[in-house]
Amino acid sequence: MLAREIKIFKFLVILNTIASIAITHQIILYNLEYLDYKIYLILFYGFIWFFSLYKIFYFSKIGLKLYVLLVTFGFVLNMLSDYKVYGSLYYFMTLFEHLVIGAIISLSFFSKIKTKFT
Q1: Distance between CA 29 and CA 55 in Å, rounded?
Q2: Per the confidence metrics, is the pTM higher than 0.85?
């Protein structure tokens, strides 16, 4: 049973990585002509985000804490952003990513996988 949950968890992390790449790509393309502090903040946040995904893929407890912290910060950023600017595909991808994030966090804290984090 644990082996199956681990496979599902790792699949969700990979799915989150793919969705995050698509979303980050969309945001950077939109803001590329405005090379200001926002683009550097987005790149920095993205780098830390992908680092946390890498760490939780290998069941790092620090990676999980960083992931939850970034999810919280990302939620605030999403509330402040203007979805209409990026289009419906971006909006769909963020909703899809949030579902995957919820599944990852649920498995991390409320399943047998929580014993794998060291």
Answers
A1: 27
A2: yes
Which residues neighbour 10 within 8 Å (Cβ) at sequence distance 6 or greater? Answer: 57
**What is the per-residue pLDDT for 36?**
74
What are the start-end ranges of the E strands in 24-68? none
Per-residue pLDDT tens digits for 18-46: 999 988 888 777 766 776 777 788 889 98
Distance of CA 106 to the CA centre of its chain: 14
Please choose, from the candidates 1, 108, 2, the residue with its C-alpha nearest in 3D space to the C-alpha of residue 55: 108
Both tokens of residue 114?
Answer: 């929580």
Cα 7 to Cα 14, 16, 112, distances in angstroms: 11, 14, 13
Cβ distance 114 to 19 under 8 Å? no
Structure tokens at 99: 């579902």
Residue type, 6: I
Task: Give the count of beta carbons closer than 10 Å to the beta carbon of residue 35.
Answer: 9
10 phi/psi in degrees, rounded to 5: -65, -35
